[in-house]
């Protein structure tokens, strides 16, 4: 979970490189390396870990505000179309954590609700259950009904 700089320093003690310095070194190496062997992750895996990290970070009020101010909702919504199950689950959870009165209209917009309706009908129970929670807790009955009509039109058109 989320740790402050002070917590990280307390865990590592007065000797050694320290956890914070070590993590900063890894990030710097990852960003600066030209070797794909040093990175060892596909773009899909990188996205999975990134949205998972954002999901964990947005529980902190200060991080949540930063994520909201810097396009985090749009990025999380884009992750809903991933073929990676963990990425989609983290994206849905992130959107729920980022819900505020100011971000509600952006997060509970018709395309996202229609997407949640699709997910709610999935045979994947983790995905289906999480989508049901989103629809029940973050959407009005009217919003869901309107998105359901669009969903049915899309099904009938194919």
From TrEMBL:
Name the Gene3D superfamilies for this protein.
Answer: Leucine-rich Repeat Variant (1.25.10.10)
Q: Which domain of life is it from?
A: Eukaryota
Name the InterPro entries on file: ARM-like, ARM-type_fold, ARMC7
The entry's protein name is Armadillo repeat-containing protein 7
Q: Which organism is it from?
A: Tegillarca granosa (Malaysian cockle)
């Amino acid at each position: 979970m989320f740790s402050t700089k002070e917590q990280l320093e307390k865990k590592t003690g007065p000797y050694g490189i320290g956890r914070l310095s070590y993590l900063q070194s890894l990030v710097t190496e990852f960003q600066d390396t030209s070797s794909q062997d040093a990175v060892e992750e596909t773009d899909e895996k990188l996205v999975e870990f990134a949205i998972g990290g954002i999901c964990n970070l947005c529980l902190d009020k200060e991080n949540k505000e930063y994520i909201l101010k810097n396009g985090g909702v749009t990025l999380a919504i884009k992750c809903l179309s991933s073929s990676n199950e963990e990425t989609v689950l983290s994206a849905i959870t992130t959107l729920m954590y980022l819900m505020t009165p100011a971000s509600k209209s952006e997060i509970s917009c018709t395309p996202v609700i229609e997407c949640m309706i699709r997910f709610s009908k999935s045979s994947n129970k983790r995905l289906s259950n999480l989508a049901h929670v989103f629809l029940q807790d973050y959407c009005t009955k009217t919003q869901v009904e309107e998105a359901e009509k669009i969903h049915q039109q899309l099904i009938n058109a194919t």
